[in-house]
Amino acid sequence: MIRNLIYTFKIAPAAVRKSIVLDLLHGLLIAMPTGFLLLIIQELFSGKAVPERLWTYTGILLALLVVQLWLSVRTIIASNVMTYTLSTRLRIHLGNHLQRLSMGVYKQRDPGDLASVALQDVANFELIFGHTIGNITAAVFATLTISVFLFITDWRLALVLLAALPLSWLMVKISDMLIFREGKRHIAARNNTGARFLEYVQGIRHIKSFGMTGKRFATLDKALNELRAASIQTEMLPGPFVLTAALVLECCFLLMLYTGVTFLTQGTLTTAALITFLILGYRLFEPLRIVLVDYIILRYMNISLERVMTLMKTPVQDAGRRLVPQRHDITFSQVSFSYGHDKQVLRDISFHVPERQMLALVGPSGSGKTTITSLIARFWDVQQGSVQIGGVDVRDMEPQQVYRLISEVFQDVYLFDDTIYNNIRVGRMDATEEEVLAAAEKALVLDFAMEFPDGIHSRTGEGGNRLSGGQKQRISIARALLKNAPVVLLDEATASLDPENEVFIQQAIQELVKDKTVIVVAHKLATIRNANAILVLNDGRMDAYGTHEALMAEQGLYHHLWQLQQTAGGWKVSNETFILNDQI
């Protein structure tokens, strides 16, 4: 935990130092009146009390109260400034770090879990620094100061009181272990519930259509029940040990009282000393009771902090030698790749795409077409071989440099909950309004945007839910046009569109790919007949390579796929079955 805190402190050292100093001073000021209270008690029982001294001590106590109130305000302000400065910078660091991670990290982790780290776990971090640490710091200083005063008064009774600390600590350590175990289970259940609820909301259309709402959606129902059980366990199991620790403190105070009365009757303790212990001795345990609760909270919150730090320490993609290519041809040299499991998705793939030419990737589903585009964009790094742009291995470039070279138009388009204009501007944030509008016009976005009340400044909704698939696709192409990168990756942008939209999208794509090096994943083979070259993949291997005419002449897999699509074009619905036109 200490290592995690030190790592976090480095994010905003000045704010942390100021807050810690103020917390220490505040803790000291809370404990200082105890010493003057002791002096007042001694003065009253001295047999010759001097009123001037009593008034002086009272005046000092009043002054300390005023200073304490002023310092409390400053401490709270400094603590909040530190907390939210740290959490803001931590979220920014976390966001920047996530951007530099390989896509393999996102493939292996649940998106709901990542969202939980960035939102809920960082929120728990705020609670640690905003309240818990300050309370513990003040409690520790108050306990130390009061202990010193009590030892000066009578070391025997002080030892009886402080004997409660190791006994209480034993109870705290037991609860600590339970919190660590149950807390991890609770956070895992919480994250799973969040992920299942997100799944429920995103799939609500299908859930309703199959009558799986409410308890009938078993995965969410199970997740909620597991969260309920984990929450009860997390609260219930450590509770008895915390209560036992508090009871130990009370018992040691009663033991001190019994011992003090015994010493008083034996004449080895003064009445003033016993009254001092009755007042200050009980107060000694007040900050400790706070610590008992806050420490348990701190241990639970530390699980969240560990999750944040673990994610922050996840290795990022190597920046390489920061080389920049001077041309934009693409070369695969004996590339083999797998997504972290035994089966290889690509096996010994080699090809070359000259600058400003188009290569089409075709093949059965799962043959590795999309994986090739992902390797070019350096979403993943190859395990064997090399991927080069302009003769430079993409691993020798910074990931950001690779992204600057590439524009992507995929079948699934994600739009931010913003305006159409701003969603296009994502392609190049420093673009002028004229450039954005020009890209929108070339991508035929203005044709439909002007039908909305606010035109191009109309909001798209979350994920673009206010727009049709074809409209979202045109915005995606407008982004790519605005970016104007030399390499374009197309993952069958027209596969799921209706014929009318497909015509518009094809026109926009023609604008996009002018004078670019293009890699296109094709499902509709008719759309890539004029590609400079076609690479046919089958089960991760190169099956054939050449032009449409050459591949058709080979009578191989490409010819077979072509014939299937031509045949499928003749299907129609007749009564309750699908039959071929030429078989009717």
UniProtKB/TrEMBL annotation:
Coiled-coil region(s): none
Protein's name according to its UniProt entry: ABC transporter ATP-binding protein
GO CC, one annotated term: plasma membrane
Subcellular localization(s) per the UniProt record: Cell membrane
UniProt KW keywords: ATP-binding, Cell membrane, Membrane, Nucleotide-binding, Transmembrane, Transmembrane helix, Transport
SMART domains: AAA
Gene3D superfamilies per UniProt: ABC transporter type 1, transmembrane domain, P-loop containing nucleotide triphosphate hydrolases
